[in-house]
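--- STAGE predict ---
source: upstream dedup step, 1 unique chain passed
mode: sequence only
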Amino acid sequence: MPRLNRVLLTHPGKHEGRLIQQVGRALRKHPDKKDAKIYDFVDDRVGVLRYQWNQRKRGYKANKITVNSTGRLPLWSR
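--- STAGE serialize ---
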């Protein structure tokens, strides 16, 4: 899918190789593509998920992928 320009990461993980594989198609250049955005959802209230996010941030930085924080989503309640 050469024109893919949006990726939603909604599962935990930390392996840099897998991360780059997951976002790589969106980051590839294509004449019809203006930009690419990766949405990486994080539950930082859970220690292991926060740790995995920190590992992914290192992977983004190592691959010169800019990370912008969009803030927190509201918590769901019953």
